[in-house]
Amino acid sequence: MLAKRIIPCLDVKNGRTVKGVNFVDLRDAGDPVELAWNYSQQGADELVFLDITATVEKRKTLVELVKSVARQINIPFTIGGGINEIADADALLNAGADKISINSAAVRNPALIDELAKTFGVQFVIVAVDTRVMGDKNIVHLNGGRLPTEKQTLDWIKEAESRGAGEILLTSMDHDGTKVGFDNGLLKKVNDAVNIPVIASGGAGSVQHFVDVFKHTNVDAALAASVFHYGEILIPDLKGILKQNNIEVRI
């Protein structure tokens, strides 16, 4: 059985790690380079770096900062934010990325998924999906959650998979930063519908939430930010408890 992955996420704005609730009210959470080194030491399985205002500000990801982070870690490194074309992904690969995460650009130009998968391989391409319930439907949102689309979440995820996405990073905006637990109902529905790994994101507040998401949805990985950034959960402790609950993890 494949080990479940624990992934801290660095949401970066103006060179600092930030964290909010439901994608707003951002507060400082520290230096991304220091945090990255710390997570690598703690035994995180991977690290995600999201330049959260690159798309809105219509600019590229902060390549020099990415290089500084990459030098501090020895675990797989995913980068997202402002990736609109092959050249952007290539620059990040050269800066130290193992994978890239695309969100808004993929929705606006779905063929970008095909191009990236063909150029770099499917394992390199993570499609991030920010979703929020509107009425009785889960709707895909763009621009750091600011802009609702016409796309229903499950339909879009299936299309992304068919185009060559290697993984899905699914963030429930309704749960994000609330610490009430992951959106296990949605995550199970998505995980059952696709054949590629799903990373759960949005809502982690306790060790039990990680136990629940793996037991109830069977997703491949769980991502969190504030509980790790502020030292509320230490990764070695989390992995120890997951193991006690018969959930396979790398210690």
Automatic annotation (TrEMBL):
Q: Name one GO cellular component term.
A: cytoplasm
Which keywords does the record carry?
Amino-acid biosynthesis, Cytoplasm, Histidine biosynthesis, Lyase
The EC number(s) this enzyme carries: 4.3.2.10
What Gene3D superfamilies is this protein classified in?
Answer: Aldolase class I
- Where does it primarily localize? cytoplasm
Q: What pathway does the annotation place this protein in? A: Amino-acid biosynthesis; L-histidine biosynthesis; L-histidine from 5-phospho-alpha-D-ribose 1-diphosphate: step 5/9
A GO molecular function annotation here is:
lyase activity
Which reactions fall under this protein's catalytic activity?
5-[(5-phospho-1-deoxy-D-ribulos-1-ylimino)methylamino]-1-(5-phospho-beta-D-ribosyl)imidazole-4-carboxamide + L-glutamine = D-erythro-1-(imidazol-4-yl)glycerol 3-phosphate + 5-amino-1-(5-phospho-beta-D-ribosyl)imidazole-4-carboxamide + L-glutamate + H(+)
- Cite the CDD domains for this sequence: HisF
Q: Where is the active site?
A: 11, 130
Q: Name one GO biological process term.
A: L-histidine biosynthetic process
Q: What InterPro entries does its record include?
A: Aldolase_TIM, His_biosynth, HisF, IGPS_HisA/HisF, RibuloseP-bd_barrel
**Known SUPFAM superfamilies for this protein?**
Ribulose-phoshate binding barrel
User: Pfam families from the entry?
Assistant: His_biosynth
Subcellular compartments = Cytoplasm
Role noted for this protein: IGPS catalyzes the conversion of PRFAR and glutamine to IGP, AICAR and glutamate. The HisF subunit catalyzes the cyclization activity that produces IGP and AICAR from PRFAR using the ammonia provided by the HisH subunit.
Quaternary structure and interacting proteins, as annotated: Heterodimer of HisH and HisF.
NCBIfam families, alphabetically?
hisF
Q: Per the similarity annotation, which family is this?
A: Belongs to the HisA/HisF family.
**Protein's recorded name:** Imidazole glycerol phosphate synthase subunit HisF
Q: Which organism is it from?
A: Mucilaginibacter glaciei
